[in-house]
């Protein structure tokens, strides 16, 4: 099954926006074991849209045309697709009523072009748009399957997942499909992690489990995949692979699943312990606490904390002794310890996490950008401090700060896991 | 001048990564008035790479082939490009020495494939790689110009700007080129802003100034462009356009230039005033202060501040009177005012900015997600408070928090500008 993704949009070919839809759709197709070896992008020009479709017909059975379904004169995709295939347009009466009613409610004048949003490919099916006005279309015609989708990602994604995928699964799905699990790692270099995983799979004779890695901000995602297997058998092998991998590098894995973040996992553990957390942040400037707050329900485990950028503010708000800073400097284990303990005590929290270091671009106290100390103070336990060396050729100020926050979350996650043992 | 951008990468067609290189290159080409109406993407397969290049030859004079220059067996781009054009590969001796020396230094075993990184297209020029090992190539051959570039964005972008653009300007540039200015706006809906700008340009009879908008997180970028003009004349017209636009909507413009952020502008004004700023953040959880800290040199204007998520922490750390919270609620002008004044006084800063509101998903105190109060306390001035209504169909928790921070920065920017008047 060969597919081609055609993206239509002047703003894409002009370089004004990044084409995120193609990645999203390609990822969905891969999960259905559909190969999309070609992606083509052109602007809202009827001749070029038709040329792209004709080209795709020579090398793909399943053809996606994405973008250009809006109400303006520019939007030519549905009509051009119909012309390229040689079918007519059909009007979705129900949608057309809805569009007209919406204009009445919004007290907005409708232009004659608005009817375009209710057109689809005659003989095919309508793809409903859960978050917008324009219909999509799905048509089987002379050995090809054509799918027309809207451009704005906030309309594109819901239409793909809610309206399109059920149809694709019905037409192209089979029991022997592709199965995969997503593992989330942090704290090991990608090359080392993947070497270890390859060895583990080799030793466990799980040769048909394919491991691919994908570095994202704050984590390394490892996808374990099995092709052409029956579900029960695939799940059994994936479970065996995970177990073997956990034995070797489980410490660095913070979750399994599609949409998992380390901050969520930390908040989840805190809620299980019924513990509260606070922070004292220097170079990260509030980013750690903001990341905790990004998790819905964070208010159950977080009451507040401190941003202490200047040395004097570390003394004033956290009670870090001036003598500690004078003797060891602000970028030191001793200061990180005093900060973590200071914030934990001031707010009577169960866990206090501190960050002090050099974000750069300049050195600080003779230490290079990327030198960071993280402290974790837990009520009734000795305070832990750890040093990060994040100075790299490519390390920017923002990268050093983000990386510090992620490592702080990882150390917190480890500390919270130990509690349960 | 027609161009086509061909991207090569299995990880792109599998949907593992977003193709940001194509956008970057298209944007650079647009500035040179080079039209790239086609973008094609395929995987690291020699047959498909050659097919893509043959296809491009039929519709473009300038052909870019991006990605697949690494040392692994997968990387087939340079050889496939040479085959598609019908030229041989040439070895860059100097680069090959460098690669070998690097392996000695890194004490790493070299594989036979490593020599590939020193190949270029015979008869053409080498494109130096300022941040990586693989050479790029530039070749004029039988009416076409071929450019081969590496895939990793951190190698791609420096090679484009440092090695490629000078050659493109030399071969395809002319005096009558494209000139543009970037204006950064916040605080007006995009449609209203663009309507106003269109009217202004119309009234000022600046019909050849084209205004296009691009919504990014935290701002609306408006690009004013003039095509086919001489530089002096274009700059004069762009200046006139800017002046007319400022008269109408200047309040919402926070900067002109390529890489400008509102946080930078705020830090710049604070440094000019020799003022310090602090924050007291509830729903934003530290994001405002972290954004201030993202600007290099922030330590000149920022000593620290507070994250006060729980009502009780607002009282404890900021001295917000319990009676204010009991009477008006935490999501109120009165609480925002007390928070802003509290943090400003506690740290003896010149400016204190507070955020309190409902990030969602749940309501709070009967107020819907998206209800936010921002307070700005400036030493010796009456404290200002403003309410935001960010409840929208598409508003996520994270969007409401980010938007609150950006609007807080805008209000701060306005307050700092008034000081100078």
UniProtKB/TrEMBL annotation, chains A, B:
Residues 4-171 form the MoaB/Mog domain. Pfam families: CinA, CinA_KH, MoCF_biosynth. It comes from the Bacteria. NCBIfam families: cinA_nterm (TIGR00200), PncC_domain (TIGR00199), PRK00549.1 (NF001813). Belongs to the CinA family. This is Putative competence-damage inducible protein. It comes from Limosilactobacillus mucosae DSM 13345. The gene is cinA.
